[in-house]
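Hey, sorry to bother you again with one of my protein questions. There's a protein on my desk that I can't quite get my head around. No rush at all, and the record is pasted right below.
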Amino acid sequence: MLKWKKNTVEAALKEMKEKKQLDSTIYAKKSAQTIIALIEGGILLMKNEQ
């Protein structure tokens, strides 16, 4: 996983928490890792089907 991707998503999630757009119990770092992993996994699945 590329570090800049995770950091960018993590920063966006933190900002959303500060603006009360996300629940305060959300862990930004773990959520960012999960989001990026899901996207990367989806891309790999699409590449394998082609």
